[in-house]
Write a structure and sequence with these properties.
Layout lengths: L6 H6 L6 H32 L6 H49 L7 H43 L1 H49 L1 H6 L3 H50 L4 H18 L1 H23 L36 E8 L9 E8 L4 E5 L6 H8 L7 E6 L2 E2 L8 H4 E4 L10 H6 L7 H10 L3 H6 L17 H15 L3 E5 L7 H14 L5 E5 L11 E6 L2 E6 L1 H5 L4 H20 L1
Parallel strand pairs: 3-8, 3-9, 6-7, 7-8
Antiparallel strand pairs: 1-2, 1-4, 4-5, 9-10
Helix pairs in contact: 2-3, 2-4, 2-8, 3-4, 4-5, 4-8, 4-9, 5-7, 5-8, 5-9, 7-8, 13-15, 13-16
Length: 597
């Protein structure tokens, strides 16, 4: 299709700042390969000449040359790897940052964490392989092939033509054949690896949920099918590679035999014929590196296309943030995060929603009804397994009800485009992913265009601003893989701050105070509710009952059914699960506070 830039060109455009380093790496690779070729030719001449027992002075230069080429080849190889990896790692750092920025900007179409991980790791690594295993080796093979033909022509023009023909087969025909044979299978490998990365995340982080709903076997079976498919593709690619390599060995032997035959007929000296034979084998072997480069390129194209798709995505505008801890101004938790970013608040209605995870299984939600008009604040509570997280998944469109429906302003949730729904309904959901990036970058995933005031207001409402101020790098503090450098409470505050910054019309908070001590939990929930614009509705899903007294309604779920509903004061005064749990939690928390003090 005309006008579509190949993904390789899109990626290589970013290499312009490192062009000098890459050219240097290519020249060093060419010098390394030529040193190897010269070493083989010189050593052959030395051995064949020495067999005639000439005076030692005739061999001295060749002996020194062999030693110099052997040492020089190692030094050149080391220098080439050093220069090449230096340039490529700089480029990959730039590409990874751009890919992360694009992923961060895609609020309407966020990738799953496994897919994001695949794009940030394996797909970006394809950029590195493109340069180190395709471009640099191909450049070296091309230059050395030209030099080999030129030097052979100085000895015998017919032999040079025979060598050129063999090199064309090895460097052009065989790579084209390898590309044609492996293109289809190679194009499937990167998406399959991305799917397997998602499977790995689901099976490890979601093991408890899968077990609870009896879906572990199904998830394992799906992952096993993908694994088997990937293994078949890789075996097929290996078999095709073996076949092409075998043809390459045959081409090298035939080319060497042809060069020897032509050289003998042209009257070339016997020692030089031997040099030409060994040199031809070495030159064709170098040219055959293009076959490996072609196979690598075919396998990398799918990953490169995924990277190029992100690199060419429409820019979402500048992202701002506070550069250092000293830039964080003092303010209060009551600062609203919404004045500059007000999403519409639709009327939410659950109509007899029922969810079953498999046929014959008990309902995770059973005939659930709820009205959530704009500005209304409702909590859903209940024991573990009551259906609270299922409720959040149905509301955000991540799960389709078995029966009934959920509507936003009378329109079914499933009818909303994926890029529009997160602006209407979203927030802090179970297992919110924290990227290996800075605090600022993780928060801006919620709203890339947010200004500094909104960024700080959200962090303050979540109780994170004081911690950020205490860090030497401030907003640029790297939180580690999945927030590994943070405590559980800090990680939860960061995820909550991101949800508050996004400020959707319907804010869903699934266990917003998980991992916090009772006093901090009460403060964070209160400040989060205060920071949410009054015209927005809030659905709080929690097992903790403290802090819910100001909400408009509390719904108690048990085994997917509503067993109680009302305001906090009324439920505490009524015998049932809520009052019993309230008494237990208050006693436990008072004991905790007494011990802590």
């Amino acid at each position: 299709m005309s006008g579509v830039r190949p993904p390789e060109l899109t990626v290589l455009r970013l290499a312009r700042p490192y062009l000098t380093r890459l050219i240097g790496a290519g020249l060093l690779a060419s010098a390394t390969e030529f040193a190897g070729l010269a070493l083989m030719a010189t050593a052959t001449w030395l051995l064949m000449t020495a067999a005639g027992q000439p005076p030692l002075d005739r061999l001295t230069v060749a002996i020194v040359a062999v030693r110099a080429l052997a040492v020089g080849r190692g030094v050149l190889r080391y220098t080439e790897r050093l220069a090449g990896h230096d340039a490529v790692l700089r480029l990959v750092t730039d590409v990874r940052a751009r890919v992360f920025g694009t992923l961060a900007a895609r609020r309407g179409d966020p990738p799953r964490s496994g897919d994001a991980l695949s794009r940030l790791v394996s797909d970006v690594d394809a950029v590195q392989d493109l340069l180190l295993r395709v471009v640099v080796p191909a450049t070296a093979a091309g230059l050395v092939s030209v030099l080999a033909v030129g030097l052979t022509a100085l000895v015998s023009l017919p032999a040079a033509l025979a060598l050129a023909a063999g090199l064309l087969v090895a460097a052009v025909a065989l790579p084209a054949l390898a590309t044609a044979l492996t293109r289809r299978a190679g194009a499937e490998v990167a998406p399959l690896r991305g799917a397997l990365a998602t499977d790995a995340i689901d099976l490890t982080h979601g093991a408890a949920d899968l077990a609870a709903f009896g879906a572990t076997a199904q998830a394992l079976a799906a992952a096993d099918r993908r694994t088997r498919r990937l293994a078949r593709l890789e075996r097929r690619l290996a078999a095709l590679g073996f076949a092409v390599d075998a043809v390459g060995v045959l081409v090298a032997g035939l080319t060497a035999g042809t060069v020897v035959f032509v050289a003998l007929n042209a009257g070339v000296d016997g020692v030089l014929v031997g040099v030409l034979a060994v040199g031809t084998l070495a030159a064709v072997e170098i040219a055959l590196a293009l076959v490996g480069a072609a196979r690598q390129w075919t396998g990398l194209r799918s990953g490169l296309a995924r990277v190029a798709q992100l690199l060419t995505a429409e820019d979402t505008g500048p992202r701002t943030g506070l550069p250092a801890a000293e830039a964080v101004p003092p303010t209060t938790a009551e600062t609203s995060v919404g004045p500059q970013h007000t999403a519409p608040a639709p009327t939410v209605r659950f109509e007899a929603v029922t969810v079953r995870y498999r046929n014959g299984a008990p309902a995770a939600l059973d005939g659930f009804d709820l009205d959530l008009p704009p500005g209304c604040r409702v909590a859903v509570v209940g024991p573990s397994g009551a259906g609270k997280s299922t409720l959040a998944a149905v509301l955000t469109g991540a799960m389709t009800p078995t029966a009934g429906r959920v509507t936003l302003d009378g329109r079914d949730v499933s009818a909303y485009p994926p890029e529009e729904l997160p602006h209407l309904v979203g927030g802090l959901l179970a297992e919110a992913y924290v990227f290996h990036a800075t605090v600022r970058e993780n928060m801006l995933l919620g709203r890339p265009e947010a200004d500094e005031d909104a960024l700080f207001a959200a962090a303050t409402a979540a109780g994170l601003a004081d911690w950020v101020r205490a860090q030497p790098d401030g907003w640029d503090t790297v939180v580690g893989e999945e927030g590994g450098q943070l405590s559980g409470g800090q990680r939860q505050r960061l995820a909550l701050a991101r949800a508050l910054l996004a400020a959707p019309g319907v804010l869903v908070l699934d266990e917003p105070t998980e991992g916090l001590d009772p006093l901090a939990a009460d403060q964070v929930l209160a400040s989060a509710l205060t920071a949410t614009p009054t015209q927005h509705s809030v659905l709080v899903i929690t097992h903790r009952l403290s802090g819910l007294a100001t909400l408009d309604e509390i719904v108690v779920l048990d085994a997917g059914r509503v067993v109680q509903r009302g305001r906090h004061a009324d439920l505490v005064a009524t015998p049932g699960w809520y009052r019993d749990q309230w008494v237990l939690q208050q006693a436990a928390e008072h004991g905790y506070l007494a011990v802590s003090s």
